[in-house]
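Components:
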Amino acid sequence: MRVVKVPLGDRGYPIFLGSGLLSRLGTHCRRLGLGTRCAVITDRNVARHYGQATGRSLALAGFDPALVTVPAGETAKNLRTVEKCYDRLAAHRLERRSFVVALGGGVVGDLAGFVAATYLRGVGFVQVPTTLLAQVDSSVGGKVGVNLAAGKNLVGAFYQPRLVLADLDTLRTLPDRELRAGTAEIIKYGVIYDAALFRRLERDLLKLLRRDPGVLAAVVARCCEIKADVVGRDETESGLRAILNFGHTIGHALEAISRYGRFLHGEAIAIGQVAAARLSAQLTGLPEPDVERVRTLFHRAGLPTEIRLNARQRHRLSAAMRLDKKVQGGEVRFVLAERVGRVVTGRAVPETLIDQVLTGR
Amino acid sequence: MRVVKVPLGDRGYPIFLGSGLLSRLGTHCRRLGLGTRCAVITDRNVARHYGQATGRSLALAGFDPALVTVPAGETAKNLRTVEKCYDRLAAHRLERRSFVVALGGGVVGDLAGFVAATYLRGVGFVQVPTTLLAQVDSSVGGKVGVNLAAGKNLVGAFYQPRLVLADLDTLRTLPDRELRAGTAEIIKYGVIYDAALFRRLERDLLKLLRRDPGVLAAVVARCCEIKADVVGRDETESGLRAILNFGHTIGHALEAISRYGRFLHGEAIAIGQVAAARLSAQLTGLPEPDVERVRTLFHRAGLPTEIRLNARQRHRLSAAMRLDKKVQGGEVRFVLAERVGRVVTGRAVPETLIDQVLTGR
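Structure:
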């Protein structure tokens, strides 16, 4: 087992990474000094594989868990699902010292985290990510929330978990499409922060996609280190943390205009990152060969790198981008790359360029 | 104009109290360094009286306000109304540096505050309380949230406003029933914290109910001072702040079991406080003459002091109390008085006593 610390003072917490960790969840929670009642929020797919083991681990450690199951997928990440969760927490009589465990991928983590942040003005929160994307990215850093019809993650909070427990064994049951989607955030860390990680991915991508335990363990740990470092230096995104949004302005807008049903998050930001790389070539000097390296890596991961939109879709995309949380004074701001491993934030981009880079012309 | 400071370090803020302040709202907001777009959330009754003046003051100071009107009354303080507000903020393209103004009573303040706390993970928040209850209590201290069917204020956050602007002139249009309800929180400050304030109310209650400007100004200011002091010492209710819940465990439960439609909050906590005073006589030594002083003062204010429940209602009341946020280890905790001006928190109360004190036997 590896431990990565997220350095946030009295809100700091450990990320436990390794094999066979799920059965130890209860023991780790025990050390947090929380109350007895708790709720495990998960989706139907994950519940089938890991619901019972999670409940058992908590019960053996003396907790009284309720299993709350929500529909799988991004379309369920909305306020109606949140309200159903609240009602279940009330029925199980959660108290202020109680806690919520998010068992699942990014959707479950974001949703359960928002429920934990707001029920009784905040109860304890524990992340148990079971997808590659959640383990390397969304379970760490305290961004929680849900979507509106108007835009992705428009409602939420900064609310840190008390611990993150990433059992790599849970990746064995992950559908292949989800595994590929998870690599989109991993590639992102290479582009924005760590050229050596990017080179390693160019070398070891196939092993990663074949779920080689050694490669998975090393890569997931490195991503958590990067995320912990960035979040530790800028918890609420007043500066540095914005680099994590590389490819996300376009990605979120694509998810919103397709009503969260067509793309997995990782797929949408794959398109977004390739587009951002192309914008970077025009605006921040990213060398063309590096644009090609970025595009190739996403392509080899089996992720989409382009999209062709009709006039109506283009119009809706640009409306959705104007609702991005990074908009300032009505202007959409982008994260762009100067080279692989280094990005700049807050760049205004002429709207005419965006459609051009999306279609790969 | 008086200014009371809420001492919360970099989250501290001023409460401006006085006559003719509403027209200066824009100027005060200007000093906060916020973005141009904003939203004024208010209810239909308040919008009719003060919506235009509020919008004008903001526009004259260079802001671009959208007026968002919600139905009046506690029954609207729910997640469906919250979602409608989010949609309006998205349509008006609020940004992270934008802000939300709560113009109205406690319901509007709690609701708009929760919207501000969660939209884009938090935008600026300004309180413009227009009821006596909101001016002396709910607009100060950062407790925001909405009701669930299961219980009052079960969902929310601690989210401090950037400023509170209480224009005493707005009390002129306040319906008499709401004015009386507001005195319930004022009497509470006397019981929990300030015996001199309690004696003043015994003396000046009629002037207060006749809206005597001098008495109103002095009393509202004193209540804000007390609230600011308590919140400044315990923002998130880990200890002292719990004294503010005197009468609220029973009061909230009464609101919940009557589906938020029968009692104003002040009416429900009037019953709750008289019941808590009677419990205090039995459990914490509050002298019987003081119980009578408390009951008499609420009675003179035209507020209910007793309620008779049938068996089914008693059952539902006790279920609602078990969902109170102060429950610990399944046990309901009460704030009880030792004498007028001093209370203790965290007292367990045998359930059999509660029905007895509610009916005044």
